[in-house]
Amino acid sequence: MDCGDKNSEVCCCCGHCGHNRTEDKKSNKPDKKEGAIIFAIAALLAMAGILLQNRLPGYAVFLLFLASWILSGRDVIIKAAKNSLKGNFFDENFLMTIATTGAFIIGEYPEAAAVMLFYNIGEMLQEAAVKKTRHSITKLMDIRPDFARLPDGSKVHPETIQPGTLLTVFPGEKIPLDGIIEKGESFLDTTAMTGESVPRPAYPGVKVFAGFINGSGEITVRTSTIWQQTAAGKMLEIIENSRGKKTKREKLITSFSKIYTPVVTISAVIMAVFFPLISFHLLGFTDQSLNDLFKTWTYRALTFLVISCPCAFVVSVPLGYFGGIGAEAKHGILIKGGEYIDILADAGCVIFDKTGTLTTGVFSVEKIIPEKSFTGNELLEIAAAAERKSKHPLGTAVCAEAEKRGIYIDMGEISGVTEKAGGGVILEYRNKRIIAGSLRFIRENECTVSEPEGQQENFSAVFISVDGKFAGKILLRDQEKDDALQAIQILKKIGIGKTGIITGDTKQAAEKTAERLGIAETAASVLPHEKVEKFTYLAEKMKEETPGKTALFVGDGINDGAVIACADAGIAMGALGSDVAVEAADVVLMNDKLLLVPEAVLLAKKIKRIVSENIAVSISIKLLFLVLGAAGIIGLKLAVFADVGVALIAVLNSIRPLGWKQFFI
Fold first, then answer.
1. CB atoms within 10 A of CB 14
2. Which of 178, 189, 342, 353 is catalytic?
3. What is the DSSP string of 473-525?
4. pLDDT, tens digit, for every residue of 434-454?
5. Which end of the chain is more exposed for a tag (fewer CB within 10 A), N or C?
6. 209: left (phi > 0), else alpha (psi -120 to 50), else beta?
7. Which of 111, 109, 114, 16 is nearest to 65 (CA)?
8. pTM to 2 decimals?
């Protein structure tokens, strides 16, 4: 609960503010073993008081229960005193202290001690539940390497290593920094980083990431980045930052508790002071009866105070989201804050990038269609010369095919290269002006070409012009991922019927992919800077049919940064090591499995339902017990159940997702 300090942040897992957490660290709070011993002594004292209350003098019984109360409630009492000195009178500690003190005043010693004992039991069980929630995340935090081994055998801290440094990694050790293998062969366990259970082969030239575990052989790695910029470092930053972000529900609950607690405290005072007077004057009781009325209503007011502690819903809502973030992380899904759990749960449409997201992104040349004045190999040579330095998947595939056919490219014959992202390349090759790229690109650069035949085929294409004349085209194929169709079908089953594709690929290739996967909307031949506009158009169009729902975008995180950032929730998949993905995305999937998309959405729906259950159960039971307490039907013992018991039920409900296995993978 809030300590009254406006600069203090409320903890997302325990409901207490950072101010209180700092004080706990500075205090002489006993460790778990010592705390258990003190609690056992307090319980024995209370039991002795109950068993001997008819055999011992009154003052001795009082001292037994007082000692039990002080030992079991020492932390609550100290916090109440400290917070009261700061002007914060309306927190859980204050309510517990004032209620039990009042119980001593009216002679209900066993009740006072029992309140603190039961409260301690609830706190211990709650702490165990929170620890379980944290454990799911701390397991992921184990990717942080403890040391980096230099070639001379000495160990240093990974954060001191600069890019370009050679490191030795023995079998069983974690790779400390991202880099390239220089020497040695092995297999790498990438489970913590990618969720993949099958070890990856490792040999010279292979890129590796911090957190991978070396398997069978010694390897030498040349680092490529500092620790803070490694894929593991970025993942840990996401996890840490996600804890401090509040959802709308959490903010609402915090605001509610600040109003609720003073209201119930004032209500208890009115109940203790005015209700006896009203009853006395209305019923005309004697002076002795008035004293009895004050005692009766004071006890009810104290019971009312204990019940009124808003611990259950102040703790369970943030813990529900915190547990959800931990559960998603356990499933290989990193979420930057609880608010994105709500957005995922409310998703009404999902729009995908095509190449590298729905498809493998690995192209192969399927057909070369030259014009009459060129042979197939001549056209391939010209295209390979144009794409020699391109990083685009189509260009890479063209160059690979040329190399496979033994076609030699004289780099000295290439000059004046100009590349336009998402369009194509213009260059001089063997004294001829070459344009290679999309059909629109070569037309924009004064190449007159009629619509080529075969346009309905399911191919991506590189069109080539030589000296302003159309020279032909190279058709390439990109296969859908194995789980793409299943992922789309599952999204529909869980309530997301609206899906779309935005791609720079041809209209025909996009529509063919959409047809096979059952995707209704497509936007093709889209340049990188046009993606945001196209996404906004498609998302608004789909939202009109599903009002109140959110729009998600799923991309590979490299050239989709802008559109990922503008979506209600941007999802970067297989984004290991991508700066753009980690910075722009709200949700980062740790591998390339498309099934993680419906996995994330369904898990979010279940987590949101758990949070709603916590709110509904906590408030309804709280109100019921408040009425019963005010009516004198229940006493302080049951009042403790209303507070600690309901909180515990909500906490246990919140950590249920941690035990869930993956739904679809």
1. 21
2. 353
3. EEEEE-PBPTTHHHHHHHHHHTT--EEEEE-SS-HHHHHHHHHHHT--EEE-S
4. 999 888 888 888 777 765 544
5. C
6. beta
7. 109
8. 0.66
